[in-house]
Amino acid sequence: MKVYIYTLGCKVNQYESQQMEDALNSAGFDRACKGESADVYIVNSCAVTATAVQKTRQTLSKIRRDHPEAIVCLTGCVPQAFPTCGSEGCAADIIIGNSNREKLTQYILQYAENGIPIINIEEHTKNSGLGGTVSGLGERARAYIKIEDGCNRFCSYCIIPYARGRVRSRTLQDIVSEAKALSTSYREVVLVGINLSAYGSDIGLSLLDAVREIEKIDGIDRIRLGSMEPDLLTPDVLSGLAACKKFCPQFHISLQSGCDATLKRMNRHYTSDEYYRLVCDIRDNFENPSVTTDVMCGFVGETDDEFNQSLDFVRKVGFAKTHCFIYSKRKGTKAYDMEGHVKPEVASSRMARLLEAAQECENSFFMSQIGSRAEVLVERPCEDGFVEGFSKNYTPIRIKGDYERGSIISVTITGTNGEYCTAE
Ligand code: SF4
Q: CB neighbours of 174 closer than 8 A, spacing ≥ 6?
């Protein structure tokens, strides 16, 4: 049978979709290419915003409409966070959460046999979602390695702890054996997790231990980290990372707001001063690092003055890239029941100003790269005989020439158009 997987959401979901694909391939299923008809469709869903859930629904109804004969499966954070979703517009033949994905192949074979719908959403356990490895990540130049799952934080706006359970970490042995297997095809690996910086907190280890172990593996030249929380990046962790030659100095550290009163209502565990000190420590410890982030506007109770504080803070830090969001009301979270939700039109006008500030900062960052040397991991060919790739601090760079995907090229950055840098 041919199978096609729709992946919504984060890098962890992308990693887990690859895991499902590998498991199905080993069971004799073939991967259907984009646009090719399949016998089985899997939607690996995301619940982080109302829009993501809406997209899950739309994807399921489109599959049902275009492929009435196919087997339709729903997995991921939507059913895990909202177990009754099956009767609320997320219709599928097989519905499982993200705690028992390893059962999907067996359920598809069972359903193909008897046509009896299956809904099985299990609670997370100590090891759920940590098993298995991936063989690679298709056409990408870098491979993701999921090392942690779950979160214990319960930020007041966030549904993820309800979808992903408590912090659980893979053993170093597991991580190293997967990284060794991937080192034959990938020179860069990205360590990902739901709350990556909490890696090891449940097994007496830390994120630094994982990076140090992968640093020893021949064939892997670059180690990158996924999104992190600020308060777990201590000075010891920073100096330890700075000593790792293969470490890529790109820090994606979620800020959410630059206003302390808003951070408090969000139940975030740091102040804007502490965040700023961390950014200064990073700039002191690493050569030409980049700091990227996520910022939300329109959070419950956010006044004009609070928003302006947040905007000023974004400009003060000068992020290399800022992912901007409007607060999304999530049923089941603390913020959902709070007083003082911001009017949509107010949130949209704040979003426009936030995007403007983000673009200004990104342009300044690109300008600051001109004249510097960089090692570019080539990702893909693009127009006019150029190839595109990323430097160690994750600056998108275009170089003229026919370089192979996955090769690393030494360059000098010569210019920028505000979207990417050019180099020789
Ligand atoms: S740290 Fe906060 S925002 Fe991040 S996953 Fe955990 S609860 Fe959600």
A: 130, 133
The 3-state DSSP class for residue 373 equals strand
Note whether 421 and 411 are within 8 A (CB): no
CA-based Rg of the chain, rounded to a whole angstrom? 22
Question: What's the average model confidence in pLDDT over 169-189?
Answer: 95
Task: Report which residue type is found at 82.
Answer: F
Ligand 1 atom closest to the Cα of residue 194 is: 5
DSSP result, 15-64: HHHHHHHHHHHHTT-EEPPTTS--SEEEEEE--SSHHHHHHHHHHHHHHH
Q: Give the pLDDT band of residue 86 (cuts 50, 70, 90).
A: confident
Average pLDDT over residues 98-116: 95
Which residue matches tokens 């992946």? 7
User: Does 158 sit in the ligand 1 pocket, CB within 6 Å?
Assistant: yes
Residue nearest to atom 4 of ligand 1 (CA): 195
* Burial state string for 35-57 with b = 16 or more CB within 10 A and e = fewer than 16: eeebbbbbbbbbbbbeebbebbb
Q: Which two tokens stand for residue 380?
A: 């893909």
CB 332 within 8 A of CB 162: yes
User: pLDDT tens digits, residue range 48-85?
Assistant: 999 999 999 999 999 999 999 999 999 999 999 998 87
- CA atoms in the 13 A half-sphere facing the CB of 224: 23
What pLDDT band is residue 138 in, cutting at 50, 70 and 90? low
**pLDDT tens-digit series, residues 269-282:** 999 999 999 999 99
Nearest CA residue ID for atom 1, ligand 1: 153
User: What is the SS3 string spanning 229-246?
Assistant: CHHHCCHHHHHHHHCCCC
Ligand 1: distance of its center to the CA of 332 in Å?
14
Residues 276-320 have pLDDT tens digits of 999 999 999 999 999 999 999 999 999 999 999 999 999 999 999
* Confidence class for position 127, pLDDT limits 50, 70, 90: confident
